[in-house]
Amino acid sequence: MKPCAEKNQRAAVVTSQPGVLQVSGVLDFSTILPLRKQGELLIVEGPESIEVDFSGVHASGSAAVSLMMCWLRAACRADKAIHFTGVPDLLERIIAVSGLSGHLSFERPHRCCE
């Protein structure tokens, strides 16, 4: 039996241009931790406003929501504005039913107020 092609898609986060993080691949519990650490570093070192583009994500679930919340907290600690674009429909639905829509901004940069 051949492994699923999706499972072979390596997850990555790269800076595609200043202030834009491009996320790609399959986001699951086996790929989130390295991505989390790398993304947090890019957020802290990045400009005052960060866009995180999920349009390259092939598959995601609740682990991706956890990743987004971790990056939101990293942006808050660094006093950066952050928003998420290209979020897959399934991921948006998970966020909505989890009651997190008010915390994760999809339309404009959101700066945390503690």
Give an overview in words.
Strands 1-2-3-4-5 form a five-stranded mixed β-sheet, with helices on one face. The chain is of the alpha/beta class and 114 residues long. It starts with 11 loop residues before the first strand and ends with a strand. The protein is built from three helices and five strands, in the order ββαβαβαβ. β2, α1 and β3 form a beta-alpha-beta unit. Mean pLDDT is 85; it is low at 1-8. α1 (32-45) packs parallel to α2 (62-77).
- End-to-end C-alpha gap: 51 Å
Number of helices: 3
Q: How would you sum up the major sheet?
A: 5 strands, mixed
- The percentage of residues in β strands lies in 25-35%
Main sheet: strand order: 1-2-3-4-5
Number of strands: 5
Protein structure class: alpha/beta
The secondary-structure element order is EEHEHEHE
